[in-house]
Write a structure and sequence with these properties.
Helices cover 78% and strands 0% of the residues. The chain is built from 12 helices and no strands. Helix 3 runs parallel beside helix 7. The protein starts with a helix and ends with a helix.
């Protein structure tokens, strides 16, 4: 179907407005992070621009402590979610078994619970077991919610795999562990990387589950919320901007590594 020039202009304008709507909060965050004053207003004088809040955020030992806790939670959650999700995705998409349909429904249930309700339920469960909330319990809570997302992402990749490759390897005498390591894992790698990215970012910025399950080991989102509600300084949006920059850098590195690996395999 041919699209007229007016329709192209309208679609381009619509796409531009949509992108502006998505990224305008990030622009406001950047403006707040470079302001000398606690609050910014328009018109915005250039003499108010400063980068001291970024330097303060990087040099702060308190911020480094909260970042360390968040990194531990996000890293371990990513490993567990991808590990659980890999085998769950194979069961979800590749193999026909008696309770497969029920499993496909049950694996999605945590996604339909509000995170605050799920966090409260897990906190009550930990208290019933006599477990003191800490960053390790937050890892369990994050994994309960994020592992189903990782499963769905990798299941998309699993649906597209050609089963004849594994069957041919098995006909040639390869055992299940060898097939898993030499065929299934490399073919699932793009889905695993995507699931790892989502898991890391979702865990890093998760506030509701962390609030209920970290105990004394507060994560960075909790500290940011506390500083926003009391004792606000522009160092808070500065940390937000640094987090966005770090997340973008990690994504670029991962996708660059994937492209490099694909070129090597093609060569």
């Amino acid at each position: 179907m041919l699209i007229s020039r007016a329709q192209k202009t309208g679609l381009s304008l619509y796409a531009t407005l949509t992108l502006l709507l998505f990224y305008f909060p990030l622009v406001c965050l950047l403006v707040a992070a470079v302001s000398q004053k606690r609050y910014f207003s328009f018109p915005y004088p250039l003499e108010n621009v400063t980068t001291k809040w970024f330097a303060e955020a990087i040099a702060s030992e308190q911020v480094a402590e909260y970042v360390g806790v968040s990194l531990k939670i996000a890293s371990l959650t990513t490993v567990l979610s991808v590990g659980i999700g890999f085998f769950a995705a194979l069961a979800y998409a590749r193999h026909a078994w008696k309770c497969r349909r029920m499993f496909q429904k049950i694996v999605l249930l945590p996604l339909f619970f509000p995170q605050s309700v799920l966090g409260l339920a897990l906190l009550m469960w930990f208290n019933f077991l006599g477990v003191t909330p800490c960053w390790q319990t937050a890892v369990i809570a994050h994994t309960v919610w994020i592992a189903p997302i990782a499963t769905l992402i990798m299941a998309i990749q699993a649906y597209g795999l050609d089963p004849s490759l594994e069957e041919a390897a098995r006909d040639m005498g390869a055992g299940t562990p060898r097939i898993l390591a030499r065929i299934t894992l490399p073919l699932m790698a793009p889905g695993m990387v995507s699931a790892a990215c989502f898991s890391l970012l979702l865990s890093w910025g998760n506030f509701a589950l962390s609030l209920y399950t970290t105990g004394a080991d507060s994560a960075l989102p909790e500290w940011l919320y506390a500083r926003m509600t009391g004792g606000y300084k522009p160092v808070v949006p500065a940390i937000g901007i640094l987090s966005v920059v770090a997340a973008v850098a990690v994504l670029l590195l991962l996708f660059g590594a994937m492209k490099l690996a694909a070129k090597r395999r093609a060569a």
